């Protein structure tokens, strides 16, 4: 696993992971709402 060389890179990496996680959560909620209807 590649470790970030600077604090800025680690912060950007964490930001990308959080955005991806929130995007996946939105997809799950949307699919759950569709299935309930």
Per DSSP E runs of 2 or more residues, the count of β-strands stands at: 0
State the end-to-end distance: 42 Å
Shape: rod-shaped
Helix content range: over 70%
Rg estimate, integer Å: 15 Å
Fraction of residues in β-strands:
under 5%
Pairing-aware structural class of the strands and helices? mainly alpha
Mean pLDDT comes to 83
As residue ranges, the low-confidence spans are none
Number of helical segments with 4 or more residues? 1
Tell me about the biggest sheet?
Answer: none
The string of secondary-structure elements, in order, is H
Task: Please characterize this protein's 3D structure.
Helix content is 81%, strand content 0%. The chain has 37 residues and is mainly α.
């Amino acid at each position: 696993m590649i470790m970030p060389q600077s604090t800025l890179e680690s912060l950007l990496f964490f930001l990308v992971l959080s955005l991806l996680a929130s995007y996946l959560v939105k997809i799950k909620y949307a699919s759950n709402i569709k299935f309930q209807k």
